[in-house]
Structure to design on (677 residues):
């Protein structure tokens, strides 16, 4: 009896394969009744067996994994670790023996009729259970395999980064003993390698995926390659989609199946690191259903359905790019999604955005010094000082430097500080919580004049937030940063002039901590510098209020704008720099120039004045740390380090300067103020 004839006889004698499914699935089996797929850790009854009218065969369909289904021969092969193509004869022989069909096996021996006592459910395929012994051999990437990945934009570099290897052979043990898979041109074989286990991917086989080794309880792919912080992370349906997104510059992860519910702990962890979590499964019925479920179960999750027909060859992000679409096409989809998220906020903020062509009526009214980093990406810069010291005008001078797209041929007066030009034309955002629209327009116009510009660059956006309640201001800032980050390909600088006006009270500890932590998180997410202008008078070396204390702790640098001994001038003092010595930064002077209608640089404090100011600040710190007590050397320099937020070496240098200049002295190796001897 030939192979095809035997196959048809089996189907004829088992009612199109229905009796085969009934035998292996047990007494609870019924046609069209849903049950959990036995071949993977299915958490929901998502598959069933039904008659295919075209072939007149019973087929297992799985809505959770459309590729994990087939006829009775496929089912028996999966249940016994057999390849439906290569081992088809063995599969038919097993069906004949187990169901006692009056047909010959491979040796044409008529088996004895044996009726199974209970017909238990089949065991899961050995290669898909934890602890499956396996062995595999990797090989250099063949050109045809790199071409396979290349059509999705995936390079060898991306494959190596995500520990994907080309396998020449994979061996494991099934119910009938050892077996091996071999790679060849028409059937390549890849391995997603991890410590202690491997996930096999054979894209052109019926059984495309298979686990070997110790499978982890919570399988994920791409998690190790995620950055510590970012804007968006995608949760996709499979490893290939993760690789495709990574190849196009996006962060992505996947789990073992789209039908695996997302845990609260996973979402909470991702939320701490990313502004947006977007679930983007396949554009077929299963993917759409599980995206909807994810959105319903997790309020912090967004979903993105790709504009694809959902067919087997056109349903995921890999197909999206393989069909010729570009990164810009995908960016537009993401932007459309995000626009819908903050549509209300954008309507609100639109009423506050200044229009250079239609200025409001009057009634309605990053950064270094002497090579020391002051304002850096991923950090906060605090500018503080009293009323009338020129804080806003000083910040305006810094803004003018960020509006230039290259280093100009002319000199731009940025009041002593060096400002990096905005070469990539990223967004520059100014939020003011105190001034009227008219006054902010005048200040922005002065910023343009200082930069030597006639028109406002399209990447510069200036907002006055005085019409908004304090509870709304942070939301508007957050959503505006997100929108303009995507619109301009990043953010070069953000200024919040009047950060204390984001909270009800600068002395509310809980609210102050929350607001500064959120701003610090936003600086990291959008890879930008946020200048926080604090309208509070510094008190010694400590800023007043809880919001000042929190800013002092979080900010990478603090600049204090104070009136000079000559009241017509203001002086910029560097109170703190995280990367460097704050006392190594000169004290820059600036004053108002009536003719130019702006503040201009007026040199620096003299060496003697600079040295005396340095000693005065160290004396203030010493008095705060040693008032009424003594400390040993280690405790003293450690306290100076914490107080001034500097490194070990700098703190020890400060202690030495205090000692040499008679600010502190020692008795029995204990440091104390000299006047307490």
């Amino acid at each position: 009896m030939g192979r095809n004839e035997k196959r048809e006889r089996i189907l004829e004698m088992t009612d199109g394969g229905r009796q085969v499914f009934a035998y292996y699935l047990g007494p609870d089996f019924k046609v069209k009744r849903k049950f959990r797929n036995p071949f993977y850790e299915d958490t929901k009854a998502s598959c069933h067996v039904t008659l295919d009218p075209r072939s007149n065969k019973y087929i297992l369909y799985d809505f959770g994994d459309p590729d994990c289904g087939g006829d009775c021969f496929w089912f028996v092969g999966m249940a016994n670790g057999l390849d439906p193509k290569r081992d088809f004869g063995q599969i038919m022989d097993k069906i004949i023996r187990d169901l006692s069909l009056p047909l010959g096996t491979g040796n044409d021996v008529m088996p004895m009729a044996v009726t199974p006592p209970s017909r238990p459910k089949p065991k899961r395929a050995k290669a898909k259970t934890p602890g499956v012994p396996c062995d595999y051999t990797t090989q250099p990437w063949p050109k045809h395999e790199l071409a396979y990945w290349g059509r999705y934009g995936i390079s060898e570099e991306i494959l190596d980064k995500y520990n994907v290897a080309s396998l020449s052979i994979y061996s494991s043990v099934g119910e009938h003993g050892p077996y091996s898979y071999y790679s060849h041109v028409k059937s390549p074989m890849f391995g997603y390698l991890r410590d202690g286990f491997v996930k096999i991917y054979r894209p052109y086989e019926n059984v495309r995926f298979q686990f070997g080794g110790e499978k982890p309880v919570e399988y994920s792919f791409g998690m190790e390659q995620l950055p510590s912080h970012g804007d968006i992370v995608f949760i996709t349906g499979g490893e290939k989609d993760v690789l495709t997104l990574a190849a196009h510059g996006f962060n992505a992860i996947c789990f073992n199946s789209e039908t695996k519910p997302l845990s609260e702990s996973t979402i909470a962890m991702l939320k701490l690191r990313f502004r947006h979590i977007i679930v983007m499964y396949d554009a077929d019925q299963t993917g759409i259903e599980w995206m909807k479920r994810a959105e319903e179960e997790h309020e912090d999750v967004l979903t993105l359905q790709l504009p694809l027909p959902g067919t087997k060859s056109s349903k995921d992000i890999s197909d999206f790019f393989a069909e010729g679409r570009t990164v810009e096409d995908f960016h537009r989809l993401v932007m459309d999604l995000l626009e819908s998220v903050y549509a209300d906020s954008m309507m609100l903020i639109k009423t506050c955005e200044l229009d250079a062509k239609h200025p409001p009526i009057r009634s309605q009214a990053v950064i270094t010094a002497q090579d020391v980093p002051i304002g850096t990406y991923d950090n906060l810069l605090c500018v503080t000082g009293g009323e009338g010291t020129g804080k806003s005008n000083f910040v305006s001078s810094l803004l003018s430097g960020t509006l230039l797209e290259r280093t100009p041929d002319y000199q731009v007066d940025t009041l002593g500080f060096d400002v990096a030009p905005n070469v990539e034309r990223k967004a520059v955002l100014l939020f003011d919580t105190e001034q009227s629209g008219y006054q902010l327009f005048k200040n922005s116009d002065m910023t343009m004049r200082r930069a030597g510009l006639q028109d406002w660059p399209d990447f510069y956006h200036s907002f006055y937030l005085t019409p908004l309640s304090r509870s709304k201001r942070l939301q508007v800032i957050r959503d505006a940063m997100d929108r303009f980050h995507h619109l301009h390909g990043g953010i070069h600088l953000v200024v919040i002039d009047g950060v204390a006006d984001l909270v009800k009270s600068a002395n509310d500890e809980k609210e102050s901590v929350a607001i500064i932590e959120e701003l610090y998180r936003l600086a990291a997410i959008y890879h930008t510098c946020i200048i926080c202008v604090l309208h509070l008078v510094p008190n010694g070396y400590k800023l007043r209020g809880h919001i000042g204390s929190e800013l002092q702790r979080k900010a990478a640098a603090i600049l204090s704008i104070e009136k000079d001994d000559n009241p017509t001038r203001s002086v910029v003092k560097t109170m703190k720099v995280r990367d460097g010595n704050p006392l190594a930064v000169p004290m820059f002077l600036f004053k108002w120039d009536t003719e130019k209608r702006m503040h201009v640089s007026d040199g620096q404090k003299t060496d003697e004045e600079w040295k005396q100011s340095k000693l005065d600040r160290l004396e203030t710190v010493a008095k705060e740390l040693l008032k009424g007590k003594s400390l040993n050397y280690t405790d003293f320099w450690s306290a100076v380090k914490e107080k001034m937020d500097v490194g070990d070496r700098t703190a020890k240098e400060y202690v030495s300067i205090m000692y040499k200049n008679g600010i502190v002295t020692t008795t029995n190796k204990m440091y104390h103020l000299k006047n307490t001897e």
